[in-house]
């Protein structure tokens, strides 16, 4: 057989967890050829020193951004706020640019300002970017050359709520979403709050109100309703489990909710409805998703009150970041959507 | 100094975690003298074989219930449903009876039936029991001889909500409470869901709706409002962190919430308001409470929406079970309320 | 391109962790086609109920052994002692038989008896089986139709020690190997010792002396020397980290040890020497190996005493069981040795 | 009853884990009255901000060392090397000085130099200090005013080996000790290696050879024998489990080892021999010791080889640091030896 067509990839800011995860997935992707990874701090050292899972898998060394050469795809894995300020520099290097940060997710500069506390550095470019959520934007992603990867907590909230809101089912009451988040979501830099003795046994509410992903979720979800997010850190390293509290009309049953999910997500390759009557794995659990691109969704209704609890689980670094980006790239290039994302996950894990 | 007056204690069902925790605390209590501990399965073996933390602390051996002799205090640590069916047997053995199960918590037999799916075995006795929550029932506990220890998740919900509901502050909207619960809450018996490889990395929603403690919480909390509970198991062994989503009127601020907590809980020895502007320990965290009788409470307001997130953390086996019971006993007997409950908790832990 | 040749696979005893892991790897293997999985207890239920990571990956249902039909490869994942007693039944079903248990690892029936406390049920067959360790038995594995998968702790000990013993380097002193073992090594059945509250925080010596894998390690390792194993359970789910204490002659340096490893393992696709002077990942760590077939090896010398500490890390279910078996099968069939074993591992994890 | 006599205590360097643990224990000690705690970085902030378990337990604020006033007891909880350089400053402030660092543990300045790589700053004072291990130095501790608290890993090694070496039992072969150490042993400062995503799942050999506590252990243990230490970090926060590999003469049995431990440690209040034939808690396990001052000791013999595996478990911050210091102080002052150290430990935990 002939070798598959490959696009060259440069990862900018490749020493963090998001960049490292994109690298891991890309090294196993038949159509991607990572040729450059930047890290100012680690320039000239092998990437496998920072990402030790890649020992024996790549001989790439970090380089500085200043040494970046053109590539087919430039993947930006920089701290929030950094990509937008220098976006011209990066779009000049690659025909396709994928940003893993929050910089190009929000369409409305005023919402950006309200959310991030400063004016967007390149508001005129916002319209060019597609929000990198294949389940909501598959058609726009075809041929897209500017992909703004969706936020991890936002993704777990959006995918749980989208079907019921799209179909106009939910009552116009306050919707609350509580996310249990692993420590990798805070990034690769050590801090007092990530110090193992302070974190290993902790259940720590870190954003009871005011989570920035609220803006993304509101932008993407249909309808006009009050949405409230709360984020809690857990002792897991990866993963987000989100439980959403919402209300359906009188007479709705489990079966109706199931139908709604089926109708909207019927053919989605990375959405699984998990609602099992027996055994111990009855609902979504991030334990099963480390390294996978799945978003597992579940729900349970309270027949007495019309309350429905929606549940979603993802790996924040895969479906929440790098896998979502690869899936979006696959769509944009016309490759099979699951390419490079075949890992099934471990059990036990 | 003279030795303190001591009451003899018999613990019935002492091989589980609740009974073991009561034993641990009682062995360190100057007014309690544990003379009997029962376990059908472990009869004639030292209690320290089952509770290895008590090695060198006690030479007690388990006996069978059939061999129970009279004691001043009989503590029932039986599976739910077992105590009520044989309550006459136990009240005949001791002047004071403390039940750690759910059997005598609910006042209304109809609610009991709706919650536990069967008729209460001794409905005529329900009125004699005091709900063992000192913060709400301190005066009734004075001299009480029938104490029904409050449920662990219920306690975390009740103590978080009581001040704002007592003062009539909350808007009449749906209140949701999400509890993150440690594995010890499911008891000392091994099961598929407690098998370490299946549980260690899990974030598992186990009661999205229909949690039985809803009935307790509704009984104890003032006002008429929809209250919804969701319970999720976490990789911790002990501890519950509950976040409650509720709504306050326009114009309410953090300061007002703080005043409400202060007004209601001002002198409570085991309630701490945790809301710190700096550092990493800003809100309640069960990490700090293992082995202690504290209920740490916190809150945060969303100024844009009137949403308030209430947070409570407890050790499910102490403030959620055995410690709460000891505190209730201390009040009932006129002993200093903190007697035997002085442990401050560990940091780091 | 044409579809690759595929052999049909029947997994006997597929509800445990070893069988489940073989299934996970085989489903992703281009030359293997799993057509049957047995479980007496779970007959007629989907395998994904027991192995929830495989939801959406397979529609296979468990069947009973009595319903087993012929297959090219029969993989036995039964409790130790079960396969040998019925081996005729299984060899009648498949041309190639792979046993994941300990039944056919030991060559000498007397050693089997001393180790397992009973006579081997089929001693006449022992000579037909190849010990499934590709690094030591690659040539014998070519064309092999009876593969006895190596034990997990034994593998970690053997691979750490083999080069220095093969080259005759180690002094004839007592060698001790201490294995830190994850909870999945004890299997999928819940027990008192695997109950999460008893295991999550535990560091529990479970085999200070008398570990059965000592016999395997002695059989496979060259030379005549006293070898002593100690096994300790840790809070991890997967993984074994083994540290070996041994002694090299005067004048030996790190460089010499390194050369020995290189000489013996130079081209091994799944052996990585991990000895890094900087950063935090200086030695082998099972954290990086979940789901992978790597055995990472490291060492450090004490220049003052000639002591060398050898370190090995594996995933007990992959390189320690199912992955090792797949690697052996790949060799036996002439497929590329890494086929189906490409997963790189996660970081962070 | 009259209030007990109290000595005033100043803790120097009280923002770390060792100082915080001493503070926790001292606040509960009837003869100790902590009046000063220093921290340069946290001066003027409440100690409970840094040690949140002490909320509601103390109103002390940190002060700078420059503001230190005289106290009966000065406890030094400074980084290794800091106390000795300024020791005159501290001995001028208090009649009794307890050092929790390594600075005054070694008697021989040459050994200090070989171990710590620099000359001891106050070698003339070394002879004045008592090594703070009550089991070995109880008589010297009576009336002592300079107590050098023993190292944590050293303590676990020394207490395991002392009886068999004191009685001259062990064969003159290499003794190896492997310590599994919790993350709190590395202190309260965040670092790359303590970053939760890098540590939570890790089993990381951090000192395969060259551990500094080797010098302490050699100084304290009788006999002339080669002793080798290896230290491995585990996902626990507290605790050390040490397994020692040693050899006893032909004919020795479990019973003989037991007798040796009994003979030497018969009346020790904080030593427990843990060797149980049934159940899951057969050997020492640090899981049971968090917050306690126990050193649990166990052993198992290999009848075929004369190998004996000794096991010891401690809480590194209590019996390994602050509790050991309090116990030493209790002896020095003639207080009951267990005063302030009564906590039994939790189960489950």
From TrEMBL, chains A, B, C, D:
<feature type="active site">
    <location>
        <position position="152"/>
    </location>
</feature>
<dbReference type="GO" id="GO:0005737">
    <property type="term" value="C:cytoplasm"/>
</dbReference>
<dbReference type="GO" id="GO:0003942">
    <property type="term" value="F:N-acetyl-gamma-glutamyl-phosphate reductase activity"/>
</dbReference>
<keyword id="KW-0963">Cytoplasm</keyword>
<dbReference type="GO" id="GO:0051287">
    <property type="term" value="F:NAD binding"/>
</dbReference>
<feature type="domain" description="Semialdehyde dehydrogenase NAD-binding">
    <location>
        <begin position="8"/>
        <end position="144"/>
    </location>
</feature>
<comment type="function">
    <text>Catalyzes the NADPH-dependent reduction of [LysW]-aminoadipate 6-phosphate to yield [LysW]-aminoadipate 6-semialdehyde.</text>
</comment>
<dbReference type="GO" id="GO:0070401">
    <property type="term" value="F:NADP+ binding"/>
</dbReference>
<feature type="binding site">
    <location>
        <begin position="15"/>
        <end position="18"/>
    </location>
    <ligand>
        <name>NADP(+)</name>
    </ligand>
</feature>
<dbReference type="InterPro" id="IPR000534">
    <property type="entry name" value="Semialdehyde_DH_NAD-bd"/>
</dbReference>
<dbReference type="Pfam" id="PF01118">
    <property type="entry name" value="Semialdhyde_dh"/>
</dbReference>
<feature type="binding site">
    <location>
        <position position="316"/>
    </location>
    <ligand>
        <name>NADP(+)</name>
    </ligand>
</feature>
<protein>
    <recommendedName>
        <fullName>[LysW]-L-2-aminoadipate 6-phosphate reductase</fullName>
        <ecNumber>1.2.1.103</ecNumber>
    </recommendedName>
</protein>
<dbReference type="InterPro" id="IPR058924">
    <property type="entry name" value="AGPR_dimerisation_dom"/>
</dbReference>
<dbReference type="InterPro" id="IPR036291">
    <property type="entry name" value="NAD(P)-bd_dom_sf"/>
</dbReference>
<dbReference type="GO" id="GO:0006526">
    <property type="term" value="P:L-arginine biosynthetic process"/>
</dbReference>
<keyword id="KW-0521">NADP</keyword>
<dbReference type="GO" id="GO:0019878">
    <property type="term" value="P:lysine biosynthetic process via aminoadipic acid"/>
</dbReference>
<dbReference type="InterPro" id="IPR000706">
    <property type="entry name" value="AGPR_type-1"/>
</dbReference>
<dbReference type="Pfam" id="PF22698">
    <property type="entry name" value="Semialdhyde_dhC_1"/>
</dbReference>
<comment type="pathway">
    <text>Amino-acid biosynthesis; L-lysine biosynthesis via AAA pathway; L-lysine from L-alpha-aminoadipate (Thermus route): step 3/5.</text>
</comment>
<keyword id="KW-0560">Oxidoreductase</keyword>
<dbReference type="InterPro" id="IPR037535">
    <property type="entry name" value="LysY"/>
</dbReference>
<dbReference type="InterPro" id="IPR050085">
    <property type="entry name" value="AGPR"/>
</dbReference>
<keyword id="KW-0028">Amino-acid biosynthesis</keyword>
<comment type="similarity">
    <text>Belongs to the NAGSA dehydrogenase family. Type 1 subfamily. LysY sub-subfamily.</text>
</comment>
<keyword id="KW-0457">Lysine biosynthesis</keyword>
<dbReference type="InterPro" id="IPR023013">
    <property type="entry name" value="AGPR_AS"/>
</dbReference>
């Amino acid at each position: 057989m002939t070798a598959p067509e490959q696009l060259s990839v440069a990862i900018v800011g490749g020493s963090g967890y998001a960049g490292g995860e994109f690298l891991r997935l890309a090294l196993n992707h038949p159509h991607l050829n990572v040729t450059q990874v930047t890290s100012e701090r680690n320039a000239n050292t092998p990437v496998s020193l920072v990402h030790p899972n890649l020992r024996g898998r790549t001989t790439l060394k970090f380089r500085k951004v200043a040494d970046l050469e053109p590539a087919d795809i430039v993947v930006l894995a920089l701290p929030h706020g950094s990509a937008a300020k220098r976006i011209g520099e990066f779009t000049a290097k690659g025909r396709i640019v994928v940003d893993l940060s929050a910089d190009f997710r929000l369409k409305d500069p005023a919402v950006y300002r309200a959310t991030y506390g400063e004016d967007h550095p390149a508001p005129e470019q916002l319209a060019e970017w597609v929000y990198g959520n294949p389940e909501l934007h598959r058609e726009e992603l075809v041929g897209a050359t500017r992909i703004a990867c969706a936020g991890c907590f936002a993704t777990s909230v959006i995918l749980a709520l989208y079907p019921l809101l799209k179909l106009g089912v939910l009552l116009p009451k306050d919707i609350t979403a509580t996310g249990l988040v692993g420590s990798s979501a805070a990034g690769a830099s050590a801090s007092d709050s990530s110090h193992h003795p302070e974190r290993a046994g902790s259940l720590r509410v870190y954003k009871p109100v005011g989570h920035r992903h609220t803006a993304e979720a509101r932008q993407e979800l249909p309808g006009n309703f009050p949405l409230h997010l709360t984020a809690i850190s857990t002792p897991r390293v990866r993963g987000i489990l989100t439980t959403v509290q919402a209300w359906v009309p009188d007479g709705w049953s489990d079966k109706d909710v199931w139908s709604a999910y089926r109708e909207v997500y019927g053919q989605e390759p990375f959405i699984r409805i998990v609602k099992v009557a027996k055994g111990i794995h009855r609902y979504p659990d991030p334990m099963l998703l480390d390294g996978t691109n799945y978003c597992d969704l579940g729900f349970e209704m309270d027949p007495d009150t019309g309350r429905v609890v929606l549940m979603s689980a993802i790996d924040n670094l895969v479906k929440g970041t790098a896998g979502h980006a690869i899936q979006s790239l696959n769509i944009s290039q016309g490759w099979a959507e699951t390419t490079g994302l075949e890992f099934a996950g471990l059990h036990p894990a």
